[in-house]
Amino acid sequence: MVKRTSLHGMWSSRFVFVLAVAGSAVGLGNIWKFPYMAGQNGGGAFVLFYLVCVVAIGLPIMISEIMIGRRGRRNPIATMRIVGEEEGSSPSWGLVGVLGILAGFLILSFYSVIAGWALSYFFLSLGGRFAQATPETIGRLFGGLLGNWQAMAIWHTIFMLLTIAIVARGVERGLEKFVRLAMPGLLVLLLILLVYAVIAADFAAGWKFLFRPDFAALTPGAMLEAMGQAFFTLSVGMGAIMAYGAYLPEGTSILRTSAWVVAADTSIALLSGLIIFPIVFANGLDPASGPGLIFETLPLAFGNMPGGRFLAPIFFGLLVFAAWTSAIGLLEPAVAWSVETHGRSRRVAGIVIGTVIWALGFLTILSFNVLSEFRLFGGTIFDNIDHLASNIFLPLGGLFITIFGGWVMCKNSSADELDLGSGPAYGAWRFLARWLAPAAVLVVFLHATGILGRFGLV
Ligand code: PHE
């Protein structure tokens, strides 16, 4: 077959690609979302099921996404269409790319609002507002932010502008320089916080909560949330990783890259949980308090530890960086699509698409104040946007992607692209991609609708 080249340039090295994918994966999903979801879903059993999903579903789908992306070398919609046709299947596979771009819109709309919270906490900590913090003072500080939708709108706007600015500059100039920065620093800060959690908080209680499974808490709904979280945290199921794969030079090991990224992403989420829950239990806070969890716990640690005055702004600054590198991945597929299909410049595409997402973000902002009492399917508007995108669109997109990689692409193509020979690693991937991952996604979906229970299957 003809080898295509990307229209947006290429990553300059394998290492930069690993950093880019890791930068996309590691973000608010690990540090903000994982702890609060684990807290709301009862801890241990949720965590265990999430880990199973990461390995059995997330990893093979990440491999498939990079593989398909590099094969097609276009935006996710065009890539799925072109490779679909090339493999003798239908061009309608492009619709999977459309689903992904929609998911990206929804996710970025709330992601940017939460990143705005982190941005605001960066400035609060610069001003020394966490000094001698107690649960009450921190609760009031956070409540003050949530109650002020204008302030939230300003932070959200700044974060969206930052994201658009990078995507508008393009892959090599915008993304590359950037992804080298955030990760190592964040890891160091997390390790310092871990030391605090071990010495000064209730580490034993936190550990128990995270790792001692109580299977009664693992409801069908919690399983769906855990699976959705696995997709969300790895950035898979929506074409972000596929878009990055399109810029990957030939001859890079897709398997090794994916394994590294999955390991790094999972470690950071667990690390974050091991920091948050000891603080929760030491201060008599509620692990199930929801999306505000890190904003009500971490300031307690910073406010009461030696050097916290200086570490807090560094931490929240790095968190904004990590969110930034993820947000770029959320915007890239739509921008690449617009540039390739409509011949727009990256700048115009970034501004137009970014503005639509920015406007959508107001639904999330208002969910925490003006519309906080409004309920749809038992949740706020934000809950619904998150649930639809993370727990339904991403797994659905992932299901199609893994079917595509495992069934539509012939053995020659995937073996050629993955370059693993016919050894056990290739066999394992193919088994997971063809059978286990699709079956698991379907079973969790059906289980969550209550259908399996109705037929006495579980
Ligand atoms: N994985 C990112 C995080 O954990 C979020 C994300 C999802 C980014 C999907 C890109 C695509 O924060």
Provide structural commentary.
With 458 residues, the chain is mainly α. It has one domain (14-454): Amino acid/polyamine transporter I (Up-down Bundle). It has 20 helices and no strands. The protein starts with 13 loop residues before the first helix and ends with a helix. Phenylalanine binds at residues 24-25, 27-30, 107, 232-233, 235, 238, 240, 326, 329-330.
What's a concise summary of this model?
The chain is mainly alpha-helical and 458 residues long. The protein has 20 helices and no strands. Helices cover 77% and strands 0% of the residues.
**Principal-axes shape call:** globular
Total strand segments: 0
Largest sheet entry = none
- Name the bound molecules: phenylalanine
Order of helices and strands: HHHHHHHHHHHHHHHHHHHH
CATH fold-type name? Amino acid/polyamine transporter I
Q: Tell me roughly what share of residues is in helical segments.
A: over 70%
Count of folded domains: 1
Mean pLDDT: 94
CATH architecture: Up-down Bundle
CATH class wording: Mainly Alpha
Which class best fits the helix and strand makeup?
Answer: mainly alpha
Q: What is the first-to-last residue Cα distance?
A: 47 Å
Poorly predicted ranges: none
Helices, by number, come to 20
Using brief descriptors, characterize the structure shown.
mainly alpha; binds phenylalanine; globular; 20 helices; Amino acid/polyamine transporter I
Topology:
Elements: H1 14-25, H2 28-40, H3 44-72, H4 76-86, H5 94-126, H6 135-147, H7 149-169, H8 171-179, H9 182-200, H10 203-211, H11 220-234, H12 240-245, H13 254-282, H14 293-304, H15 308-342, H16 346-367, H17 381-408, H18 411-418, H19 424-449, H20 451-454
Helix pairs in contact: 1-13, 1-15, 2-11, 2-13, 3-4, 3-10, 3-11, 3-13, 3-17, 3-19, 4-5, 5-7, 5-15, 5-16, 5-17, 6-14, 7-8, 7-15, 7-16, 9-13, 9-15, 10-13, 11-17, 11-19, 13-14, 14-15, 15-16, 17-19
The protein binds phenylalanine.
